[in-house]
Amino acid sequence: MTPDTMSVPACVDNLQFCIEETIKNRVPGDLIETGVWKGGLPVFMRGILKAYGIVDRAVWVADSFAGLPKPDPEKHLRDAMWYFLTEPIEGLKIPLDYVESIFRKYDLLDDQVNFLQGWFSDTLPNAPIQNLAVMRLDGDWYESTMCSLKALYPKLSPGGFVIIDDYGLPLDCKRAVDEYRQIHHIKEPKIWINEQAIYWKKIE
């Protein structure tokens, strides 16, 4: 964890691995994180592209920039309970201009960085993303995770990676992932990064 990301080293290393694998294997597509907090991981994504001199991929930064949406307790009780515990924490509500300042701090705010501001249900279905090589989902709740998967997974190129940050937490994120995989007959094995996060490589 650093001042700009809540992610532990194992998750940062995994993100770098996934991006570098898609570069090495020429998997087409952009990079996205949904739920970015201060933006540390999207900054890292952009930094990797810059280090490799890649100018034909974009980084998408998707967040409300106003905190987490309120879950419906009648549908997702565990998510609603976690919302009740975390909602008063102002540190979870990071505005867009602050995230932009983190990109500027590392001299990485340019036209390869695109922001999607708003609830995922409003921004992701119509986002002008053609295809993706790496998608990292950190939406916490069932609805946020399911919305992200529905909108983005069909755009993930074969050979690309999906990373789920909150799968191992006592939230309904896991249920959303398991339901989506079952509905769409996704058989690729889930690989644990640590006790919280998983990823898998899309085969087809």
Structure description:
- The protein has helices at residues 9-24, 40-51, 77-86, 96-105, 120-123, 142-152, 173-183; strands at residues 30-34, 59-63, 113-117, 132-137, 156-164, 191-192, 198-201.
- Helix 2 links the parallel strand 1 (30-34) and strand 2 (59-63).
- The protein has a seven-stranded mixed β-sheet with strand order 3-2-1-4-5-7-6, sandwiched between helices.
- The chain has one domain: Vaccinia Virus protein VP39 (Rossmann fold, 3-Layer(aba) Sandwich).
- It is globular, with a radius of gyration of 16 Å.
- Helices cover 36% and strands 18% of the residues.
- The chain has seven helices and seven strands, in the order αβαβααβαβαβαββ.
- Helix 1 runs parallel beside helix 2 and helix 6 runs parallel beside helix 7.
- With 204 residues, the protein is an alpha/beta fold.
| CATH topology-level fold name | Rossmann fold
Contiguous helical run count: 7
Oligomeric state of this protein: single chain
CATH class: Alpha Beta
Mean pLDDT: 90
Query: Roughly how much helix do the residues carry, as a percent range?
Result: 25-40%
Largest sheet: 7 strands, mixed
How would you write the strand order of the largest sheet?
3-2-1-4-5-7-6
Order of helices and strands: HEHEHHEHEHEHEE
What would a concise description of this structure say?
With 204 residues, this protein is α/β, with parallel strands linked by helices. It has seven helices and seven strands; from the N terminus they run αβαβααβαβαβαββ.
